[in-house]
Amino acid sequence: MTDRIQVTRDHLNDAFDLLDGRLDSRIKRHGDMSHASVHESLGVIAEEYKELLDEIHANNVQGVADEGIDLALAAIYMVASLIAKGKING
After folding, report:
1. Of 78, 70, 89, 90, nearest to 38 (Cα)?
2. Is the dihedral of CA 9, 26, 46, 85 positive or negative?
3. Which of 31, 27, 18, 32 has the alpha carbon at shortest distance from 62?
4. What is the pLDDT tens value at each position of the chain, 90 positions in all?
5. Residues 47, 52, 57, 61, Cα dihedral to 10°
6. Which end of the chain is more exposed for a tag (fewer CB within 10 A), N or C?
7. CA distance 29 to 73
8. SS3 letters for the chain?
9. How far apart are CA 73 and CA 26, in angstroms?
10. Which residues lie below 8 Å from residue 35, measured CB to CB, with a gap of 6+?
11. Cβ atoms of residues 50 and 67 within 8 Å
């Protein structure tokens, strides 16, 4: 896919809905505790990035989307953990 097309606000909202659903699943599986440190966050992000690369190399479009959501969620959870710990303002 090399052609660019417009990404509308509706497309972005759909992606945020997928992210929100994945967040619910993550909390059910792992609980709602923060990451212990930014190093833990980095480890989660690195693992999700590796899984995304694997799906890209496998040319698996659905897998790319799933891992992209997981990667975004890991980054958002890192920020939420920093907010929860009072390290940054929300």
Report:
1. 78
2. positive
3. 18
4. 579 999 999 999 999 999 999 999 999 999 999 999 999 999 999 999 999 999 999 999 999 999 999 999 999 999 999 999 999 998
5. 150
6. N
7. 14
8. CCCCCCCCHHHHHHHHHHHHHHHHHHHHHHCCCCCCCHHHHHHHHHHHHHHHHHHHHCCCHHHHHHHHHHHHHHHHHHHHHHHHCCCCCC
9. 9
10. 41, 44, 77, 78, 81
11. no
- Tokens standing for 76? 């958002």
The full set of domain ranges for the chain reads 9-84
Single-letter residue type at 29:
R
Amino acid 19 reads L
Cα–Cα distances (Å) from 56 to 17, 67, 90, in that order, read: 23, 10, 33
- Tokens 């972005």 locate to 12
